[in-house]
Structure formats: structure tokens, C-alpha cells
Please model this.
Amino acid sequence: MDIKAFFEKVAAGFSFEEIGAWFKDLFASVTAEGGPVETYWTMGLDFIKGLLPLAWILPAILIALSLVQVFAGKKLLGLQKFLACFVVGYALGAVLLTPVITELVQIPDWIVGLVVGVVAAILCKPIYFLSYVAVAGYGVYALCMSDVLPEAVASFTNNWIVALVAAVVAVVVALLLRKWIEMLGTAALGAWTLFLSVEALLASLNVWFIAEYVIWWELGTLAVGAILGFIVQVKTRSY
Model:
């Protein structure tokens, strides 16, 4: 797809299936077996397992960290932005930029990833802000340009002017409610990692009583954790 075709597709609104497929392909390329990210991740995980010989200790630590995320995620958001930008920057640099750079000069993938990760971490605030605005704005724009809206508002679909206005309104609302959205979002993220950590803990103990209803356990943990975490974060906010 050339540049003109790409921007025409942006204006037409990528479908959520296409957006999901793009992220899925990107994740697959970053985590490909034998790749730089997967290799170093395995090395790091093996190192941690060497320090924590009992299989249940790491999941237990992750459960504790997940609870911190649920009930105090907003207060730790600055650190999380920094670390997330470094990790994502490292992964994208090592996997996507290395092949381009090595055509000019031979540089180990971990060096490219490290440089990109450090730069991304330093620029984490503007990167996060732009990502936040892009998700709010283009998410609503793509929704308005899609065919998933109910028939009652069908007249507003596939109209780029209406979609653009809706996107601008969504960005304004998202910015006005930013701290509330961030509290709910961090609580929900913590609830999700809590479920995964509990699942890993039960697996390490060979306990599988939730396997039959795993989807309901996941949805229940996500809903309850997000709501309780949001309430606690609102009640304990200091800003």
C-alpha cells in the first residue's frame, strides 16, 4: 500500500478487524521465536526463575503487584509510562528498525533496541499524550465510519464530516475526563493482570478448578477489580 492509498484508507476508516489484525501481526513479529525480544525475554525469565526456585513465588509477587496496580495505578502512571515506552521502543527498534539499519551498517539488534527504547522513554510524556488522543479520536472516527452502529444512527455512518466532528468531541471529552479515565483504565489493567497472575499461580500448584468457567472468572475479575479499584483510587486521590 503506497502513501496515497494509506491515507485514503485512514480517511475511509480502518475497520476494527483490520486494526486488530495489524496489532496481532505486529505482536507476532515482535515475539517471534528465536527473535531478539523473545531470546532476551527467555534469558531474563530464566534468570528470575533461578532466583525464585519455587514456581509459585513469581505468580504470588505478580498478584501483589497487580493489586497495587488496581488500587494505586494512577499514582504510578508516570513510572509505567516510562517503562512501557522503553519496553515497546526496545521491541520495535530491535525487530523493525534493525533490518533497515543493518543495510547501511552492522549493529547488533540489542543496541538498536536499547537506543530506541531510551529515546522513547525520555519522550514518554508526549508519546503517551499523542497515543491517548489518537486512541480516543480515531477510535470514535473508525466507529462512525464502520457498519457496526445500530440502525437508529445509520444515517450518521460513512460520513467523514460527521465522523470527524464526533472524533473531535471524543478527544475533548477524553481530555476533560482524563484523570477519571486513567484511574478506571489502570484499575482495569490491574484487574486483568491479577486474573492472569492468579491463573499462573493455580497452574504452578496444579489447581484447575476454574478451567471450566475461565471466561466468567476473567470477566468477573475484570469487572469487580476495575470498579473497586476505580472507587478506591477516586477516594484516595491527592490531586
In short: The radius of gyration is 21 Å. The chain has a mean pLDDT of 83. The CA atoms of residues 208 and 239 lie 42 Å apart.
